[in-house]
Amino acid sequence: MNRETFASGLHRFADRSRLLFPDGLDAWRDKVLAHPDTRRMAEEMREEADRFLLRPIPHLPWSLFRRFEKDGSRKPYETPYFEKRQRLTALAVTHLLHPDVAACRESLWDILWSVCSEYTWCLPAHLPREDPAVPEDPSHRLTDPATHVDLFAAETAFALAEILALTRDHMPKLIESRIRAEVRRRVLEPFLVGGPFGWEQARHNWSAVCAGSVGAAALYLLDDQAELEAVLAKALASLECFLDGYGADGACTEGYGYWAYGFGFFVYFADLLEKWTEGAVNLFAREKAAAIARFAQHCFMDGRKVVNFSDAQPEAVVDLGLFHYLHGRYPEIAVPAKELRGPFRPDHCGRWAPAIRSLAWYRPELEGAPWGEMSVWFPDAQWLLSRRRDGAHTFFFAAKGGHNDEPHNHNDVGHFILHGDGGTYLADMGCGLYTRDYFGPRRYEILCNSSLGHSVPVIAGQGQRAGSAYRAKVLRVETGRAEDVLVLDIAGAYAVPSLQSWVRTFVWRKSPSPHLVLEDEFAFAEAPGELIERFITPFLPVPAGSGRVILNGRLFVEYDAIFLEPRVQPFEFLAHDSKTETFYALDFAVRPMANTDAPSANPPREPGLSRTGPPDAGLPGSGLAQTGSPYAGRLRFRFSFVGPTDI
Fold it and tell me: What is the pLDDT of residues 343-366, one digit of tens each?
């Protein structure tokens, strides 16, 4: 890093509000209030601020703080904790836009003071704990919770530092000095002389959020050049770890939500640093950063519905400000349609940095458009994502290989999602309620994390195993305008001794009418126990004649009734928002067959299936063979979208 160029930032940014608003805060305010799009966003946030003015600041008592340690519950403490951050963000944004509103201004000072008074800025779930297996000795002393740095301590430091820079002309001096002291004591000094913290070398969202936030706080608050350089050097090293956690394809295996979180904070810090150094340090010039930036536009199935592999939510409000900013950096990034923007209010964690940039980076002149057609294979993540548009109709197919030790991992090698016209018919259950068990040794006893909660086979009564050794082998990939093909051997995700291979073939035919053909071809050294083909759906499966099941009157599941017996069982699970959701396992138990690979008599043909003669629409029939050793079989399904007249 060029010291002279770097040092010039200390001189040029005497008014550090210009790091975010280069033309000045007043010019930005006038611009926001002059355009109907951004003026409406300002009004929405003011409505949120008014709502908080009617409520007292939440209290964070000992009885809530200890709940995680007592029973593993996170929400009792985190709900008021995040409400305080929501309050802070709503009041601060509104104060920037309406500085003369006394009630908002005074309430902002109150919440800033309250946040500075918290016992710790960390969540209880993120604090280090005594290991009962380790004898008590001075070298095993725990970090002071007040000076431990987790995601939210770092985010809080970033928020306070930036709000201070933007409001210091009106802020009481005692609050300013307290913010400076608390951010230094709780975050900047521990980062420099404490630790090292586990996230400093993490290859997932933590390194970007924590290091990016600490670096941003330092840019806003530190006046000593050597000290600032030391913080930034460490922050940049952590950001290298973050980038290293991605493959060259730029795919985020944690899912879209964690892409927006981790890469978002990478972008926030990179933007500030580039301005500070007058372009001498440009993290956006890295090809890996560009690849990561391009990833998100492929994750949206239709509207706000997203591919939600891993601990991802099935629907996401699009941050147009972030997309607009990235489009300015990388013109190939799509501009989403304006109607995908949700109400402008703090997110569920009350994060300041993305909220203010949603407005600061919003470009009203960019109209945007619906998501377009695409078929993309991400070789490092082993994800195939394909979107088909047919007039007003949109269809989406996603499948994954990968391994079972990915960040926020689910045991889901060979899993897939099928979406059409706003409905996700074959789905991922998504992330469950975060608790101590959710990130502990019992993680895969929780259905949504287990392979038993995904559209993958249950083999000899067993699901997939967790660990990086349990993975897919990619045998073939083709993407095209009319058809996509993915062939995986997923036997390596199971620990069944007799299993020799389980080759799963997806053929996604996009025209003339979208439908998916799935073939599983397997071989065992000896006859296995029960084999079940499992498909997860939010809709109650309904029989539709021999060899057919229909989901929500819109998707036919066709199978060979000679070989497969359908069963349905409901699954309830506690979703991330603590609400109970119901999914259904549409199971097909493989009927025992001996010494043959086709029925001996002339069986009735199942609709759309053929076991002899030319294949119908490219879908030949199923077959089993049990000749002692090996035991082999081939099973096929077709998933077809239909209209009311086809039923």
Answer: 999 999 999 999 999 999 999 999
Residue 551's nearest CA partner among 577, 575, 580, 516 is 516
Q: What topology does CATH give the domain 382-591?
A: Beta-galactosidase; Chain A, domain 5 (2.70.98)
- 288: Cβ contacts below 8 Å, ≥ 6 apart: 243, 246, 248, 250
- Chain-centre distance for alpha carbon 531: 32
pLDDT of 444-469, one tens digit each? 999 999 999 999 999 999 999 999 99
Residue recorded with tokens 């972008």? 267
Cα gap 46→90, rounded to integer Å: 7
- d(CA 327, CA 335) in angstroms, rounded, equals 7
Tokens encoding 369: 């458009």
Residues whose CB falls within 8 Å of the CB of residue 624, separated by 6 or more in sequence, listed in order:
563, 590, 593, 596, 597, 632, 633, 634
Q: Which of 155, 169, 159 is nearest to 91 (CA)?
A: 159
* CATH 2.70.98.70 residue window(s) in the chain: 382-591
Q: CA 76, CA 485: separation in Å to the nearest integer?
A: 47
Amino acid at 444: Y
Backbone phi and psi for residue 34, each to the nearest 5 degrees, phi listed first: -85, -25
Residue 541: strand pairing partners: 551
Beta-strand runs (E) in 356-494: 374-378, 383-390, 393-400, 403-404, 416-420, 423-426, 458-459, 467-471, 473-478, 483-489
